[in-house]
Design brief:
sialyltransferase cstii, chain A, 7-stranded parallel beta sheet, 14% strand, transmembrane, transferase, membrane, glycoprotein
Length: 216
């Protein structure tokens, strides 16, 4: 299990001098032809149970690292078993048992999501972590981007695909067909995460202040 400092050192080593693509799951990716561009990166990072099957032209097919921020359960076994150990899985402590038999699994002992606020304090030189609107954890995509901006000097390049810079509260949550509609999960989001618009403000500040490519 990895603590914050240990994980950042591992991530810096894993991504050292690499061209890195972070691929979110926004439905905005549908109709885009980013697949070849995404796959041209040395390292491709995806999230949770995002499947590329049938969407390769838009999202590519390569995956090297996968960050899993939700609590994985029985309904997810089939998907993760289908990866056949070809991807490195990074997940939170509550999934330690679920991924215990996964040969490329890495479990984070520290609070990966909440730690991003401390990194933001450093990256933006502001005490963001003390503000009331940031007392709940952010979403996994934002937390990862924050960690990557923190180690950005070690990367050759960082490009983000399929994440959104503006607020949206309706329509499909993901590009892949899992049937989840934002209008049905907003209350759950508000319960489990910080204010989404406040998170997006920080996301846009990172993009403004750091050399990160963005493809919506």
């Amino acid at each position: 299990m990895y603590e914050l400092e240990c994980f950042c050192e591992w991530l810096s080593s894993e991504l050292y001098n690499k061209n890195v693509a972070v691929v979110g799951s926004s439905p905005n990716l549908l109709g885009k032809k980013y697949g070849e561009l995404i796959d041209s990166h040395d390292i491709v990072i995806r999230f949770n149970n995002a499947s590329v099957s049938g969407y390769e032209n838009s999202v590519g097919c390569k995956t090297h690292l996968r960050f899993v921020g939700f609590r994985a359960g029985a309904s997810h076994y089939k998907f993760f078993n289908s990866l056949a150990g070809n991807e490195k899985i990074i997940s939170i402590a509550k999934n330690e048992e679920f991924f215990s038999s996964y040969k490329n699994g890495i479990i984070l002992e520290y609070s990966f999501h909440r730690a991003s606020y401390g990194l933001i304090d450093f990256l933006l030189n502001e005490k963001i972590s003390e503000r009331a609107e940031y007392q709940k954890p952010p979403r996994t995509g934002f937390a990862l981007v924050t960690h990557l901006c923190f180690i950005l000097p070690f990367l050759n390049s960082l490009n983000i695909f399929g994440m959104e810079r503006g607020f949206r509260d309706e329509g499909p949550e993901h590009f892949y067909n899992d049937g989840v509609k934002l209008e049905n999960i907003m209350k759950r989001r508000e319960k489990n995460h910080c204010d989404i618009e406040s998170e997006l403000f920080l996301f846009n500040e990172l993009l403004k202040n750091y050399s990160v490519g963005f493809y919506g």
